[in-house]
Write a structure and sequence with these properties.
alpha/beta; 46% helix; Rossmann fold; 435 residues
Length: 435
């Protein structure tokens, strides 16, 4: 089976060239060409311009034998995690050849990938590397050979250019700005079959489905810091920027707040998709654990490794080392830690009345707490007992403060807490979830 994995949103002449190359290989080997298409959300974490059914039709008309949907990934996982999942699915389905495009010599792609291929990591690939995403795919494909005993043969063809690189984003934007009609200059970039399908779907009104901005802005306008902190891909800076920037009423106000939080476009789209779909950190970590159990996630990206790194850097920083130096040594020396604390107790700043209220509640049930970083950059918690709500800073040793802050800013590791009583009185027990 010869495969291509893409959004194809919509299929342009560069995509058609990919399909033609894949078809040539398939015919030489008496095999079929299968295109794996993302559904719902694109690899860039935005809603697809065309539905899966429409893009599948485009792919078949362009020469593919069939398509396979890849579902439920791109509003939950970033590319460092979704790429191993997609590659593993294709290998398990029987794929032997993979076709992609790059504007760099394939030998250079291979050479650039060699430094990442041994452990399969796709984190830390410099942003200025040409064809960074192809390097990521090539490296992970090499890594997966250790699990399956084989991997796919990569066929890298030159990217087709027409007065520069042909961009799907440019094509989509041009159609939108032209009142959903295809401008003449864009028709030059599209196969005839794609043009006919786009014109048909434009008349039906199915193109460019919008995000549910009403739902997104409602959450951004009303959720507490504690509730926002449970949403995947929102770090403390983003949560506080959202709170500070209220009220939200339009898309531009949403993108502006992520820019203030120093989010790049890709992470901003992923965080917005997680908000829209109410994707929690707990949901993401369970999904990651599922793929870890299958042996397809590189070691450096596993949840345990992220938690270990957070604790190690926090511990070394407490000893006076720069965090950036500790982080680099953790990676370069492949440091492993045992017995990393996954729970600890913190003191509370509460009144006698609040103490009495909580003690009475503990006699009947558990009292959960939400952990967040407040506007003054302090680790805090929100406790709700019936209609009674308490917000207070946590009293924690410096090491635990730094460690917990790194975990919160990991963007996908959930932190939960509950009120407990011990010999020192009421405490908030914080849990760093790794399973």
């Amino acid at each position: 089976m010869i495969v291509i994995s893409a959004d194809f949103d919509p299929i342009h002449l560069g995509h058609k060239k990919l399909i033609e190359k894949g078809k040539d290989i398939a015919e030489e080997n008496g095999d079929e060409l299968v295109v794996y298409l993302n559904t719902g959300f694109s690899a860039n974490h935005a809603p697809c311009f065309c539905s899966y059914e429409v893009r599948s039709e485009m792919a078949i008309k362009a020469g593919a034998d069939r398509t396979v949907p890849i579902e439920g990934l791109h509003h939950k996982l970033n590319l460092s995690y979704s790429v191993p999942v997609r590659l593993a699915q294709m290998i398990e389905d029987g794929a032997v050849d993979y076709v992609t495009a790059a504007n760099v010599n394939p030998l250079k792609i291979k050479k650039l990938s060699e430094r990442y291929a041994p452990n399969g990591t796709s984190i830390g690939i410099p942003r200025n590397l040409p064809n960074r995403n192809v390097i990521r795919w090539y490296s992970v494909n090499e890594f997966l050979k250790g699990k399956y005993g084989h991997n796919m043969r990569f066929h890298i063809i030159p990217e087709l250019e027409h007065e520069g690189k042909i961009s799907g984003r440019f094509i989509r934007r041009s159609i939108i700005e032209n009142n959903m009609e295809i401008p003449d200059e864009i028709c030059e970039l599209l196969p005839e079959t794609t043009i006919h399908i786009l014109e048909r779907e434009s008349k039906k009104g199915t193109l460019n489905p919008q995000r549910n901005y009403r739902s997104i802005t409602h959450k951004m306008n009303t959720y507490s810091r504690g509730s926002l902190s449970n949403i995947a891909y929102l770090n403390a800076k983003a949560v506080n920027a959202i709170i500070d920037g209220r009220q939200y009423s339009d898309p531009e106000s949403i993108w502006a707040v992520f820019r203030r939080a120093d989010y790049g476009p890709v992470l901003a789209r992923l965080a917005t998709s997680a908000l829209e779909e109410e994707v929690t950190k707990d949901e993401v970590i369970k999904l990651m654990r599922t793929y870890e159990a299958k042996g397809i996630i590189p070691e450096d990206q596993k949840v345990d490794k992220v938690i270990q790194r957070a604790y190690y850097v926090a511990r070394e920083a407490e000893n006076g080392e720069l965090a950036v130096d500790a982080n680099e040594r953790f990676k370069s020396e492949n440091i492993k830690l045992d017995n990393v604390p996954l729970s600890f107790d913190g003191g509370l700043n509460i009144t006698k009345f609040e103490t009495k209220k909580l003690k009475r509640g503990l006699e009947n049930h558990k009292i959960p707490a939400k952990i967040y970083v407040d506007k003054d950059n302090m680790i805090s918690c929100e406790i709700k007992e019936g209609k009674f709500k308490i917000k207070t800073n946590l009293k924690l040793p410096g090491l635990n403060v730094t460690y917990l802050r790194y975990i919160i800013d990991s963007q996908f590791i959930p932190v939960t807490a509950e009120v407990v009583e011990n010999e020192r009185g009421l405490r908030v027990r914080t849990y760093i979830h790794d399973n």
